[in-house]
Model the fold of this input.
Amino acid sequence: MTPPNKESLFGSKRQAPADKANQLDSTVKEILASEHAIRERKTARLRELRLEKEALQSPPEPKTKSKRKTPKKSGTAET
Done:
C-alpha cells in the first residue's frame, strides 16, 4: 500500500477554465446530437405509421351543408 500524498487525497491538478469549458461543451454537444438523432428516428417512424394508416382508410366524404327546412322568422310580432 502506498502512503497517501497530496495528489491521491485531493485528486489531480485543477484544469484550466478553458479546458474545462471545452470538455463540458463537447459533452453537451454529444448529448444534444444523440437526443436529436433519437427524435428524428421517432418522428420518421411515426410518420411512416401515419401514412400507412391513412393509405388503408377510405377517404372521408366531404361534408355538405344542411339546408334549412323552414325559413327563419324575425323577432318582431305582428298584431
